[in-house]
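How a chain folds remains the central question behind the approach discussed here. In the encoding step, the backbone of a single protein was reduced to a row of integers, each denoting a local shape. We regard such an encoding as a compact summary of how the chain folds. The sequence in question and its structure tokens are set out directly beneath this paragraph:

___
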Amino acid sequence: MATLEVDDGTIYYETSGDGQPLVFVHGGWMDGSAWEPQVDHFDDEYQVVTLDVRGHGNTGATDVDQYSIELFTDDLEALFSHLEIERPICCGISLGSMVVQEYLDRHPDRAAGAILGGAVRSMPPVELPTGLKPFWSPLPAVSASLSMTGSAGTFQSMLQSIQATTGQRWLSVDSAVRAEAIDSASDIPSAEYRKIFDALYRYDPPELTGVETPTLVVHGEQEVPLVKRQGAQIAAAVATGARVELADSGHLVNQDRPRAFNATAADFLDTHSAA
């Protein structure tokens, strides 16, 4: 694993393979290892890059009081500069999909392609007027939960609440994948968990109407309907967008159906000549 020094911390990343850069950004309270099925599949043909976003994995805590999707995207751009990557294919899931959307909004035609798994524009997946967010904010409840049950308990409570509301196995249909995600969340200190949640909640999604990068949105069948709706909005907004839904999978679609996800991604890249 390699490191990138930034002003207020150290970003950990890994690279493997040679060819067109294919960069993966993980979801909230996870780390770069969540993309292992994709790394193993694509590093024969691509230069595959994974990173641990601030607050996650080996990167861990950094010396800033507040995280944001914009800050995570700044780090991604710094990594591209460090690795001299000029024409990446960007792939993100959940929180990572927000980071990729922010990058596309900043650079509408720089990326060779974009793949958004579990793509979501906002959290919650109903876009509230910016002025109302502070009054509706779940952050006090999250802070209270963290103080009582820690990161693992707070993460599990969130999953139970979503399943009770939607009646769906939202995060994953695979008990092993779900358990691994909970274990990953349990490794994150409570203060970092709150900063990550705050970054997700405060993000104001871009419209993406000027984006020329070919973009694929991939959702699992068990994804929350409101999230699917936001994914459809993304695919419709960009100049060249498509959306695919994979059966027998949830939010972590790349881990629930790794072969199907990899095949769908490869077909998309071949069709749009991104490589």
